[in-house]
Amino acid sequence: MKYSALKGARDIFPPDIYIWQKVEETAKGVFSSYGFQEIRAPIIESTDIFIRSIGETTDIVEKEMYTFTDKAGRRITLRPEGTAPVVRCYVENYLYNLPAPQKFFYSGPMFRYERPQAGRFRQFFQIGAEAFGIEEPKIDAEILSMLKLFFVKLGLKDLNFELNSIGCKKCRPDFKKALLNFFSTRIDRFCPDCKRRFILNPLRILDCKVDACISLREGAPRVTDFLCNECREHFDTLLSLLKLLNLSYVINPEMVRGLDYYTRTTFEVKSETLGAQNAVAAGGRYDRLVEDFGGPPTPAIGFAIGMERLTTLLRSLINHTIPSPKVFIATIGSTAEKEGLVIADRLREKDIWVEIGYTGNSLKSQMRRADRLSADYVLIIGDDEINSGKIKWKRLSDGSQGEIPFQEVYDFFK
Ligand code: ATP
Ligand code: MG
Prior knowledge:
Blueprint: H1 16-33, E1 37-38, E2 44-46, H2 47-54, H3 59-64, E3 66-69, E4 75-78, H4 83-92, E5 102-111, E6 123-132, H5 138-153, E7 160-165, H6 172-184, H7 192-200, H8 211-216, H9 229-244, E8 250-251, E9 263-270, E10 279-285, H10 289-292, E11 300-306, H11 307-315, E12 327-331, H12 334-349, E13 354-356, H13 363-372, E14 377-381, H14 383-388, E15 390-395, E16 401-405, H15 409-412
Parallel strand pairs: 1-5, 7-8, 12-13, 12-14
Antiparallel strand pairs: 2-4, 3-4, 5-6, 6-11, 7-9, 9-10, 10-11, 14-15, 15-16
Helix pairs in contact: 1-5, 1-11, 5-9
The structure holds adenosine-5'-triphosphate and magnesium ion.
């Protein structure tokens, strides 16, 4: 019997893990300099939380959620995204009583029952950030420049930032009316899902991935033409701030995003080299979500970065810097072997990575292993060394070697 990972779920292990760790460290560093603090919400939540926030007629809720009933009959869902759980946590713990803005970041696995393919998995990882309590577009600009800095620090300088504003509760109805008007003459040619969306949530037709629907919606009204004065001004101010910060963008008036909770600013960061699944990060404002969850009116904005797509981009860019031990202790004979074990332990107390040889390995095979591990130094201990009280050392990079008294070995690697 041989087991394998579930379809669409992947193992991450060395050397790939070093890219993941670099991404996580970079995110933590950059996000901290913008004042974002880490938050960890559970991976399981009540199903309602996602239905209410992401929206009943979205692909995620209709087709992609991992939902099950637990032993007590509760409906539970493995989180398909990170924003709803963070908002739930924010409201449940009265974090809105703290001075605004409250800024958080998270990272971890998300689950969607999608058809596995390049850049699309059933368990995938996101790093995301959410900022609560500020309406002014200055924070939109900060969020976008934070994202940009994060990518630049990883060596990704030419990703495309696509922006849009999808309006608010005030201007959305006019846009919806215009959409209904446009689609009413041709809806019979759309896919069955879109026919349903036409009745329930016409905006979702704009997010349909079916080729026929994509071409049928050519010439559809654009949300940017229906923005109310406040939304228009909010968007224009954001754009001017982005110019000030030297962040180049393109406006994509067709981008509506696949989740219902978005308002005003939406954005995606795309790569030209990823193929069909080319969005590395995506996000936007969700000014009404906190209120929908029972909190006070609280504007908010956030994004999520797709780790698998990002690490795909980085794999060809970052040289796999596989860490290597500082010291390899090769021993000959049982007395030396014990001595080596003690020295290794004492060096490790000083945070030095030490590898040792194991019983039955000849000196030659131990040296070969030291070489393969790219150890900086090899210490050689045999009967001669025990008798003379000195250890032989060898630096593998240049072949230099010498001797040190046993007691001085700890200072030698300081
Ligand atoms: P897509 O356009 O790929 O369907 P989405 O709009 O469903 O993306 P979001 O929910 O906004 O994606 O998630 C943000 C990011 O998370 C995406 O830009 C992508 O990088 C990543 N992502 C989303 N779904 C998956 C998945 N199934 N597998 C891997 N990464 C994913
Ligand atoms: Mg999707």
